[in-house]
Amino acid sequence: MGDEPRVETAIEEPALGESEEPLTARSIASAFAGGLAGLVVMSPLIAGVPILLGVFRLESLARFADLVISQADAVLGLVFFVAGGVVVLPLFFVVTATFLPPHEPRYLRGATISSFFWIGFVYIFWPGSTAFVNATFLLVTLVSHWIYGAVLGLVMQRLTGIPEHSV
Question: 15, 38, 105, 157: which sits with the fewest CB atoms below 10 Å from its CB?
């Protein structure tokens, strides 16, 4: 059973060639590209559902920016949110992907790390509304983060592969 040869799929074969060194400019750029793609794909769900429920609050974005700069506004919060999704979370992914589950398919490791970041997202953006809205918020934001992470991992796997390194 365990001795069967592994069949690689097109998703698991990097288009730009797998990097021998795990932390190259190319692998980091592919992570940034994956983070941007993940944000684009998750945006209709993570912003659209709260807007439809009437619980989307600009104050939450301002509160998010307040974590970095005192007296910030919603625009700066949106900038920080995008920067986190395009730069910060992908950098965490590049560094930790080797150690994350699942073993296969490797690109789903992005969903694992985005689940960790979802916890902070829930704390910052909690709507504090009815039980239905709160439950919907939890479900929609978790699925959104899984979509983001899967896209991040998929783009990175497709471009340069998920880095493997030892400590």
Answer: 15
pLDDT tens, residue by residue, 131-149: 988 898 899 999 999 999 9
Alpha carbon of residue 139 to chain centroid: 16
pTM of the model: 0.81
Q: How far is CA 81 from CA 10, 33, 48, 59, 159, in A?
A: 32, 16, 16, 13, 24
Angstrom distance (rounded) from CA 26 to CA 51: 37
